[in-house]
Amino acid sequence: MEVLIPNSVIGIDRWAFGGCTGLTEVVIPNSVISIGDRAFYECTGLTEVYFRGNAPKVTDRVFSGKKGTVYYLDGTTGWGDTFGGWPTALYQPALSSKAEEM
Fold first, then answer.
1. End-to-end CA distance of the chain, in Å?
2. What is the Cα–Cα distance from 102 to 51, expressed in whole angstroms?
3. Least packed by Cβ within 10 Å: which of 36, 39, 59, 95?
4. Residue 88: how many CB atoms within 10 A of its CB?
């Protein structure tokens, strides 16, 4: 299951999706400036998280379970080699079917 967080959301509360094992992919808009502790904890099916904006404030306990990848867009700031304990990668929409969504 894919979840597209609406542009009206500025924060994702702690445990917001905790335990949602059917969740596989999340797209987070540039309006989100913070993600609470364990917001995606025990989402064992989650493997891809796409960010449309700068890196929001998080703790290292945002994700757990099966390791995934955090994707970010070129030109956004605050990204390092990892985010919330997961590796990051530059998202290249031209190489993916996600191009229309971003």
1. 18
2. 9
3. 95
4. 18
DSSP output for 13-28: -TTTTTT-TT--EEEE
Q: What are phi and psi of 27, to 5 degrees?
A: -115, 120
| Cα-to-chain-centroid distance, residue 48 | 7
pLDDT of residue 66: 67
Question: Domain map of the chain by residue range?
Answer: 2-91
Q: What gap in Å lies between CA 78 and CA 42, rounded to an integer?
A: 25
Phi first, then psi, for residue 82 (nearest 5°) are: -135, 160
Judged against a pLDDT cut of 70, whether residue 83 lies above it is answered with yes
- Rounded distance between C-alpha atoms, residue 42 and residue 74, angstroms: 29
What is the pTM assigned to this prediction?
Answer: 0.87
